[in-house]
Write a structure and sequence with these properties.
single chain, alpha/beta, Rossmann fold, 3 domains, 6-stranded mixed beta sheet, 4-stranded antiparallel beta sheet, globular, binds adenosine-5'-triphosphate, binds magnesium ion
Length: 290
């Protein structure tokens, strides 16, 4: 079993932005989803775990070893897909993977060949293996990024918004791949897509403003809202009046009609009960705790 323990982790950038504020998390094998809006601190947390930046205070350990003191211990077991991969060199997908595999310490040519062939197939890039990565489409680059993260049998995979830019079919393939490999390792996935977390992750956290606002199992967090989520259609002009009276957790324009979803303990007049979903958890947490 692999374990990441994060204790009171705080990081402030030079411009004064508090990107992480006393973050506490305990993560073991399986998929862990990190949900949060733009600027929540997801990438900051991931970059700090992988040792790309040092926090001002707090601790991170991986399998009992101090990650902040010695990032190399975690890095040898790490597959990382950053949000911005940077500039791609003008070499083929195969050559670039071969180069990265050497850096990861896969010294035997036959082993590299076998792994690279397998991974290119898994991310559906076999036909493009001799094309320059610099000429790939956004989705192809993303899939290449996934393949490089999987090189060298990592024990921990950290992927920052991996499905951004993938079409629905590729997103599905990718999610299934992560799901398969996460059985024996830690996979930390950041996303804005509530659905991905709902379907894939056994454990999750919701972040905003550098803080972890909720964490637990998606099903449990949803269960806590049972009987408290209501919706109705209203006139567009009445929205402010409803906002004063109820805790509106989402508003949606459907075919020019306004639909609101509210959190209330008791049945509000004129509303229909809704079966709670992870989206409600997400919006409710962001509304009340941000
Ligand atoms: N290098 C940096 N220097 C200064 N501020 C930064 C830096 N990187 C991020 N920030 C700020 O820190 C906060 C957290 O940013 P971060 O990139 O971690 O968010 P995020 O949750 O990954 O957002 P997104 O979903 O948009 O990727 C934001 O306010 C951001 O503007
Ligand atoms: Mg980010």
């Amino acid at each position: 079993m692999n374990t990441i323990s994060i204790h009171d982790l705080s990081l402030t950038y030079k411009n004064g932005v508090k990107a992480l504020q006393e973050v506490n998390l305990h993560i073991t094998n399986g998929m862990f989803g990190l949900l949060g809006p733009n600027g929540a601190g997801k990438s900051s947390l991931m970059k700090t775990i992988v040792g790309l930046q040092r926090p001002q205070s707090g601790q991170i350990s991986f399998n009992g070893k101090d990650v902040i003191q010695d990032p190399r211990y975690l890095q040898q077991y790490l597959g990382f897909l950053p949000q911005d991969f940077g500039v791609y060199p003008k070499i083929s997908a195969w050559q670039l993977l071969d180069h990265l595999a050497r850096l990861k310490g896969i010294v035997h040519a036959s082993e590299r060949k076998q792994q690279i062939g397998y991974l290119l197939d898994r991310v559906n890039l076999t036909a493009q293996r001799y094309k320059e990565v610099a000429t790939f489409s956004g989705g192809m680059r993303q899939r290449f990024g996934v393949a490089q993260a999987l090189l060298g049998n990592p024990r921990i995979i950290i992927v920052d918004e991996p499905t951004a830019g993938l079409d629905p079919e590729e997103r599905n393939r990718f999610n299934m791949l992560l799901n398969e490999i996460s059985e024996d390792i830690i996979v930390i996935l950041s996303t804005h897509l509530v659905e991905d977390v709902r379907h894939l992750c056994a454990e999750m956290a919701i972040m905003n403003n550098g803080m972890v606002l909720a964490h637990g199992k998606p099903g449990q967090l949803i269960q806590e809202l049972a009987g408290r989520i209501w919706s109705r259609e209203i006139a567009l002009a009445d929205i402010e009046q409803y906002a004063q009276q109820y805790r509106i957790i989402s508003r949606q324009l459907i075919a020019r009609r306004m639909h609101i979803t509210v959190y209330e303990q008791d049945t509000p007049a004129g509303f229909q009960p809704l079966t709670p979903a992870l989206e409600h958890v997400y919006f409710n947490v962001l509304q009340t705790k941000s």
